[in-house]
Amino acid sequence: MFEERLKQKLAVQKEQGLYRNPPEVSEGDGRTVKVAGRTLINFASNDYIGLGRSETLRKAASDAFMRYGTSSSSSRLVSGNASVICEAERAYADYFGYEDALFFPSGYQANLAILSTLFGPDEMLLFDKHVHASTVKGMQLGSAPFRGYRHNSMSHLEKRIKGATGNPVVVTESLFSMDGDTPPLADLARLKRTHGFRTVVDEAHAYGALGEGGRGIARGVADVALGTFGKAMGLFGAFVLLPSLYREYLLNFASPLIYTTALPEAHAVTALAVLSEVEQADAQRARLAHLSRRLTHLLTDRGFTVCGEAHILAVQIGSEERAHGLVKKLFDQGYFAFTARFPTVPMGQAIIRLSLTANHTEEDLEGFSDTLYRLMG
Predict the structure, then answer these.
(1) Which parts of the sequence belong to the Aminotransferase class I/classII large domain (predicted)?
(2) Cα separation of 93 and 88, whole Å?
(3) What ranges make up the beta strands (E) of the chain?
């Protein structure tokens, strides 16, 4: 019966066009991937400014792992609280303009820790309905009540604030991972001044790629901010920027941090090198912005509905089956793209999600837009 239940659920996934079977990638450089011996232009990478294949960072990581070894071999609260990790956390806090920082093995774990640990029955979490799945799971695991508000709607958020049964905490993203858009941060700041709530902002897709020096775009409103190393920062793991009191509390009570092996010391050393690369990447950020605008214009000129204000673009398709079919045809034409389907997006609102890197060329964009237009015809 157990195996039969699994088979039945997988069969339903296939019938609904929701089945996942990711291709095996043998090589990749951010701009391209090799699948089944074919090199494809990659529009599904989060290596936004090209640091994931940086020779400088490769050398820094290699030297760090040779010196410090490959594992911390302990949780953070036993013998894994290495001085170099603490040093790197202080450097990240200083660079991004926060009081303190805390490293995590993944962004998913970081969101679980923040939302399930910091807030309790005296608070009410008010979240944008398009936040990441890890944010939703963190709220579900915690003891604070939570309510959603319409995506990027400050009027609906204010209504929720006025009706909150506890101290409101607003939870949002600075650059939404599927929609590619940003909240009206000036309006959010105004609401924050008026109502005095706390704010948690996921800047995973903004850090490194947006803002002065890659510092993101939400420092003016975020009390707690989450960043990941595995996107524009070119590494792996995650970091949370926050007040020192919050850091102390998470170290004492956050299960996703307490009961897991700490990141190795070599990671922290490499993370320090990442900061230097990010600070010097103004040219890459400018090119990324240019390419993003260019692809948006190419697609909209061909009649596509495109959402996105930066390097993540969502091409509206609708049908799950049609979106999946288009991605398969794009693959055959030499382009690797990702279709976001239910439950990642609402049923019947499937998109082709495109993410750009500074290493893409104008020819890549023109070829992709021409091909997608032809396939839709």
Answers:
(1) 39-368
(2) 9
(3) 25-28, 32-35, 38-42, 100-104, 123-128, 146-149, 167-173, 198-202, 224-228, 238-242, 306-307, 312-318, 335-336, 338-340, 350-355
What are the structural domains, with CATH classification, of the chain? Answer: 2-49+281-376 (3.90.1150.10), 56-279 (3.40.640.10)
Residue 52 CA from chain centroid, whole number: 15
The whole-number pLDDT of residue 342 equals: 78
Phi, psi of 353 (to 5 degrees): -90, 125
212 pLDDT more than 80: yes
Q: What is the pLDDT of residue 20?
A: 83
Distance CA 205, CA 220 (A): 17
pLDDT at position 377 over 90: no
Residues linked to residue 306 through DSSP beta bridges, in sequence order: 315
* Type of residue found at 103: F
Strand partners, 35: 25, 38
Q: DSSP per residue over 264-321, as a string?
A: PHHHHHHHHHHHHHHHT-HHHHHHHHHHHHHHHHHHHHTT--EE-SSSEEEEEEE-HH
Q: Which of 274, 271, 256, 277 is nearest to 105 (CA)?
A: 256
Length, in residues, of the chain: 377
State the angle between helix axes of 185-195 and 154-162 in degrees (0 to 180), rounded to the nearest 10.
20
Three-state SS at 189: helix
Residue 93 corresponds to which tokens in the numbers above?
A: 């806090």
Burial class (CB in 10 A: 0-12, 13-18, 19+), 36: exposed
